Amino acid sequence: MSSSASSPGQPPRRLMWLHSRPVLLFAFAFAIMADPVSSVAYAIEAALRALNGDLSLLLPTMCLVLGLIALVILNYHQLVARYPQGGGAAAAAGDAFGEAWAFVPMGALIVDFVLTIAISCAAAAAALIAYLPALAPWRVPLSLALIVAVAGLTWFGHLGRAVFATMTVGFIAAALLVLVYGALAQPHPTGTINPTPPHPPPVAIALAFPVAMALATGVEAPSSAIAQLGQLVGAGRRRFGRITLWLTLGIVGTITLGLTIEASRLRIGEPPANTTQLAELARAAAPAPLFAAFQLMTALLLLAAACSSFQAGPGLLKALARQTLSEGQTTGILPAPLGRTNVHHTPFWGLLLFIAISAVVTVAANGREQRLVAFYAVAVFLSFLAGLTAMAVFFRRDRRPVQLAVSLVGALGVAFTLAVNLARGYPIASLAAALLVAAVFYQLWVRAGRPRGIAGAVTKPD
């Protein structure tokens, strides 16, 4: 018998390694972290703009950002342990405060998915324009074309996790090469650099870091995405979720601090029109071929993050859509058409809805990703706040004072981030949209007779 023989229904032995746990962990972890890793493309620049171009305060600001992200991850480490079946903040809020409260993080997730699509496609367009300035007059049409193109890929079926993982690894490799070349480069002052902060340094940092907390988007994804690991039992899902959380912090933290230090040393300030700080950093640090590759990998990673939201958003709507089971029982709260799929199992009405809304948001922002950053941080931090306060309730019930203190400190940090961003005025639209979605879901839930288990929609395969 050939050595490649295997049992019926199993892949050939020579391909068994593709189904091993290390390969599955690689594909899962690096696909899930595409969102937070891609946020590096605009979060550092957002912090510098909030600092009014003061490069001397950029590093402490980003260190504070990463510190708060570490605190959130520490809490989600416990949340994954409590919900190895998935569900994230929605499941935790439903258990801690009553099932109706699960709609708050769900509403925040819906808004977060829309903003991820809009800001990722706008940032991808910015990366392309930074390399090909002739595209600048077509910024908005280019952003919209990228939205449609990414949605089109999703229409024809889900891209495998391995594709997202490959794009993430490609960007990480390109970023590390830029850092290596940049360590040998001479300072190359570019853009606007302001040696005078807009406020005393502690105040300037405290007001600037909440904007850069867009870097935290996607941190909550492992707590929900582990539900898709049907081949693993609870302990395996818990392990995958926790490893992904800390691996994300390590990689995002390393790249963020490296690029921040390099931008400060090379004197890369607020970029001029039609380019980005990250692009100017790569242009100053790396040879032309690497600069081109870096811009391409940046755009591809951003589009992978958008594609992930095009899968997750309509998938959540599908899980909440009304359907009639074989025994005649009706489940779900949203209109039934949102649950209909095409031959590629894509919920097409939900996909079209996300295309339309993200396109409107992109046009409203004139295709500028920096105009969307503060909105972005508000949406995801509403979900964080729900998850962390729920965990605080659990730890109080379980009489675990150390974990309770960690959750309360994390919740306070998240609440401060929300408050500062909302104080800017316009980001309140993001909060209002999330609460409006939550209110609509709640009313439909009440009208449907308050069916049990609605918080589990986040755990259903999309």
Automatic annotation (TrEMBL):
The keyword DNA repair does not apply. The chain crosses the membrane at residues 59-76, 109-132, 138-156, 163-184, 204-222, 243-261, 290-312, 348-367, 373-395, 402-420, 426-445. It comes from the Bacteria. Gene3D superfamilies: Amino acid/polyamine transporter I. InterPro entries: APC_K+_Transporter. Keywords: Membrane, Transmembrane, Transmembrane helix. This is Amino acid transporter. It comes from Micromonospora kangleipakensis.
